Amino acid sequence: MNEQRSRADQRAETSARIVAAAQEEFAAGGWAKATIRGIARRAGVDPALVMQRYGSKEKLFAAAVLPAVALDDADTTGHLAEVLETRMRALSPATEALLRSAPTAPEAADALREYLSERADGLVRAWRDDAEGPENADDELRAAMIVSSILGMTIARHLLGLDALARLDRDAVDRIAAPWFAALTPPDTAGLSASGPGQTDAGPPRRSRSAR
Amino acid sequence: MNEQRSRADQRAETSARIVAAAQEEFAAGGWAKATIRGIARRAGVDPALVMQRYGSKEKLFAAAVLPAVALDDADTTGHLAEVLETRMRALSPATEALLRSAPTAPEAADALREYLSERADGLVRAWRDDAEGPENADDELRAAMIVSSILGMTIARHLLGLDALARLDRDAVDRIAAPWFAALTPPDTAGLSASGPGQTDAGPPRRSRSAR
């Protein structure tokens, strides 16, 4: 019984090591450069064991990287300042793997687009819950601009090493990013996504859906 | 004499075909997936000829893709709305090659960071020429946020296929993006980068460099 448990534990521990190694390998060089051999080397196991457990590079990528796109509600409904500050500070290996792989691996691009779409939809839902007027035809576009901008800043900061963005700390987020988010927030919502000054009077006049 | 000229013309024509083929190949799969063999196939020439002309994949990348980062003044000094609208509409093969390669090829990442830095510096120079007060310690950060955001929207639109961004046309740029740029423009410049409403009163109080 005990031996059985210990074996299961050992198996789980090895799987966890392989997943962590895969995240590192995909983060280091993106999808195209990652190899089962390289992942096995990082995990300290035989390549045959990696294949036996995960079957293919595609499936290991799905197991190790794609779950990273799961969202909790706090991520989508207005805590943009927190999201931005967290992204500027650090990048998890799974997220880095996704960002490095997305431009060339279709499955990673799909996962990243899905993630951005879900976050944008969450913003739109939050704005609409909050709005008093009719639906705004621009809501989806505004939300897509916000989440894509955070994506771009994350890539520029961590993958390209654009130094100036390292200074986007908590203080700068409040001072600069909050009014910037507010400028993209539909004008008749209550500035849900921002906590800085100028959040209620920024933005152009609202248009109804029929005006398009 | 004529034969000589015709040979030189032929040589130039072949080089142009190889460069165009390299842009397509690097755009299709990024740096890691591109091969001399694949480029030669696209150009309809022998791989040995490609090697003879360019020496290596690295050098061909430098010849075909890196020159795309050259900037003209109009790009840096305030025409953000035009840049954004152009980026949303189409992507040149050279730019696509750079964006797909940057996350995994250090030479492409360096070139892209250099490009973003130059554009950000151009914005800062334009703001300072325009400003009446002292230099703003946040200028570089604000400029980096703007250029990185345009990068993120370009990646999300063209490499990931985030549909909502396809609606960011000229009209939407004036309506939505101009006030958004204005919110990132230092408060005591004259809204150089924006043409929409709300451009002069957006943004937080200015701080001097010594306040940091």
TrEMBL record, chains A, B:
SUPFAM superfamilies: Homeodomain-like, Tetracyclin repressor-like, C-terminal domain. InterPro entries: Homeodomain-like_sf (IPR009057), HTH-type_TetR-like_transc_reg (IPR050109), HTH_TetR (IPR001647), Tet_transcr_reg_TetR-rel_C_sf (IPR036271), TetR_C_16 (IPR041678). The keyword Manganese does not apply. Residues 12-72 form the HTH tetR-type domain. GO terms for molecular function: DNA-binding transcription factor activity; transcription cis-regulatory region binding. Residues 35-54 bind DNA. It comes from the Bacteria. Keywords: DNA-binding, Transcription, Transcription regulation. The keyword DNA-binding applies. Residues 186-212 are annotated as: Disordered. This is TetR/AcrR family transcriptional regulator.
